[in-house]
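Handout, section 4.2: multi-component inputs.
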Amino acid sequence: MIRVRGEAELVARAGHLFGTVGSEFLCAANDMSTWSRPNDRAAVAQRMGASLAEGVTVRKLYTPTALTDEAGRHHLFEVAAVGALVRVCASPLPHETIVIDRRVMILADPVPTRDRGFTVTSSPSLIEGVCSLLDAVWQASDPLDVYLRRDRPRIDADQRKILRALAEGLTDETAARRLGVSLRTYRRRVAELLASLESASRFQAGARAGELGLTR
Amino acid sequence: MIRVRGEAELVARAGHLFGTVGSEFLCAANDMSTWSRPNDRAAVAQRMGASLAEGVTVRKLYTPTALTDEAGRHHLFEVAAVGALVRVCASPLPHETIVIDRRVMILADPVPTRDRGFTVTSSPSLIEGVCSLLDAVWQASDPLDVYLRRDRPRIDADQRKILRALAEGLTDETAARRLGVSLRTYRRRVAELLASLESASRFQAGARAGELGLTR
DNA sequence: CGGCCCGTGGCAGGAAGCTGCCACTTGCGC
DNA sequence: GCGCAAGTGGCAGCTTCCTGCCACGGGCCG
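Output:
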């Protein structure tokens, strides 16, 4: 377990670790303040793209802070586009945490003091402990798209009726009769609803609707 | 930072820390397996009571596992009764974590291997990092009473996999292949899931699952 | 060993859901 | 009137999903 001061020293002493990702890259932080310089960030994105191509899982956990500035949003969309899993967490994450292959962990001190401190460790017990916590936070967080979709799909009164019928577990036939439309039309409506919820199956649509609180 | 093996050694080398709690005692774990012997547990409860009387904040975070056996339930109610804050977290916490006054941290290895390993550290950066994660999980968790009030279906790890496949909008065929079971078995599982969610249709099950936050 | 329970998987037949096609109505503007 | 667009409903054929039935392969117990 070592301590370093400043990004420069971190890069010097642990930078090589970023090039040797084997299977998993995990990162949790408030925002993108660490790799503040655009070219650094671009380099990171590029390397990440290469890793993803090799089958590495990349998970990034940020708070809404990361979405406030345009650069941050852009970066997140970018990494999400190349296949990284991005989630947004409601609680603050002042200590940026990076875990590589569950073998090395980098823990940053909060907020960029002039020379930010970093703790680098490879202790399995520490890493596993932190990872299980990270996993717990991860589970409790929203995927980027879900977070952004919050209250996005516009659902009108008619669609809401369909939604409610579906949520009650009615068969299409029953629901159609209740709504006073033909089976064909009802199903058309359901299909439209699935489309507006961007879902491939009724279950998925239900899940989305439930997450978004549309069923209550 | 030191490593110890077995509860006995932990008590010998770090036991004194439990007596010197100044302001905060934080504990997160799957269940009560650590202090498995009843008299130990009673002693812990007693000391905790004393601490609480002195104005110490005690926060305990457990998973539903801790509530499965009668002894665990009892212990949790007991500590909650004397003023400890108890919350229940949906994600597993295999590495028991104890933090005292944000100055000392004990990280346990998972599951009682014969001689369970413990990592004890007083590194501020590590502790603060872990604490911010713990706080994040804490925030996302339900207080014990809230948790108990909500009657949610018990979903095990296998069912959760099914749930996730469904929530992704996969067809049964794809999902079955991914989970490595036959189509028949997969559908059996889905049917079981619908039953445990008391749903008549997949949409309804999705909606329930979404509402209960089971899809993340 | 035989008998039993349980979980699994294949199969088949049926139910439910999906959608393209077309015909019909309604409403609007020319 | 005609033409056009949009919404509806019936039909058909397809896919997906549901489930009862039976066979097979462990474990477990007497």
